[in-house]
């Protein structure tokens, strides 16, 4: 049985909680204000910011007109495009990440460490540094304004590969050796031994792929600006026109865009935190 916490540990935990609560409230304040603003008529959004009063956070009237207008505009197809692109990126990206992680953790081939080091270095290079020349290459290949052009750069996500590699390295090598002695190929070892053990890490890697793709703005803006393949983050910017900015609809579109990853993260947070902390089964 675990030892009961001491008074000092309890007091330390309470102090940490007292510090965490206001920090969490401050971090949530922009999201709460954006949500409230999305429910206000456009002319009331900035009316009560100065001086600060109860009307700043509690609207006089609540309306869903901004959400209705957004869903009836060109933003709705853009939101669906984001869903399609994210689904393809997660599905195909998990295949690439799982195979790459397995190879870097288990397969005995020369230069494995050098390949992993090169992958880590490439992952540390900001994508913005290569986005413009890469978009030029994609246009030359005829991938502009296509789902393929949006999805392909997301498939080799270094963080998801790193996560799965670390998990696979924690799986006892004796399991792979036993499978090989039973006549399994390396593909069979991967499918029958490693994959069944990696549900949590696969969910964690899938969430990483989803969030990276869902919040992407620069790459979709460069490679897929056409209305038919425009994604939600790019479409939000369309609410800022030369004649003015419709902040009500912009906030509503932002809330709809943020709601989908928020729901997924809340639903799978247990698997995500477990996957980042786990290092596989131990002998």
TrEMBL record:
It is a multi-pass membrane protein. GO terms for cellular component: plasma membrane. GO terms for biological process: transmembrane transport. Its main location: membrane. The chain crosses the membrane at residues 83-107, 114-134, 146-164, 202-227, 247-268. Residues 79-268 form the ABC transmembrane type-1 domain. It is found in: Cell membrane. SUPFAM superfamilies: MetI-like. InterPro entries: MetI-like, MetI-like_sf. Keywords: Cell membrane, Membrane, Transmembrane, Transmembrane helix, Transport. Pfam families: BPD_transp_1 (PF00528). PANTHER family: ABC TRANSPORTER PERMEASE PROTEIN MG189-RELATED-RELATED, SN-GLYCEROL-3-PHOSPHATE TRANSPORT SYSTEM PERMEASE PROTEIN UGPE. Belongs to the binding-protein-dependent transport system permease family. This is Carbohydrate ABC transporter permease. It comes from Jiangella asiatica.
């Amino acid at each position: 049985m675990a030892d009961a916490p001491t008074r000092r540990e309890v007091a330390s935990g309470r102090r940490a909680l007292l510090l965490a609560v206001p920090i969490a409230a401050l971090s949530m304040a922009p999201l709460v204000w954006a949500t409230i603003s999305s429910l206000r008529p456009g002319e009331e959004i900035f009316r009560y910011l100065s001086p600060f009063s109860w009307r700043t956070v509690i609207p006089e009237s609540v309306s869903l007109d901004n959400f209705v207008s957004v869903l009836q505009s060109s933003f709705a197809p853009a939101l669906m495009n984001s869903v399609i692109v994210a689904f393809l990126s997660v599905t195909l990206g998990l295949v690439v990440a799982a195979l790459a992680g397995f190879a870097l953790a288990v397969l005995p081939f020369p230069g494995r460490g050098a390949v992993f080091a090169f992958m880590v270095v490439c992952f540390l290079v900001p994508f913005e540094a290569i986005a413009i020349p890469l978009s030029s290459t994609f246009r030359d290949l005829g991938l502009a304004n296509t789902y393929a052009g949006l999805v392909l750069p997301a498939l080799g996500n270094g963080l998801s590969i790193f996560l799965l590699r670390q998990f696979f390295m924690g799986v006892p090598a004796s399991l792979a050796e036993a499978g090989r002695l039973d006549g399994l190929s390396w593909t069979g070892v991967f499918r029958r031994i490693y994959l069944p053990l990696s549900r949590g890490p696969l969910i964690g890697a899938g969430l990483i792929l989803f969030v990276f793709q869902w919040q992407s703005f620069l790459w979709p803006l460069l490679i897929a600006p056409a209305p038919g393949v425009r994604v939600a983050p790019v479409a939000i910017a369309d609410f800022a026109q030369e004649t003015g900015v419709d902040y009500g609809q912009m906030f509503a579109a932002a809330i709809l865009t943020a709601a989908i990853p928020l729901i997924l993260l809340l639903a799978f947070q247990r698997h995500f935190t477990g996957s980042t902390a786990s290092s596989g089964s131990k002998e």
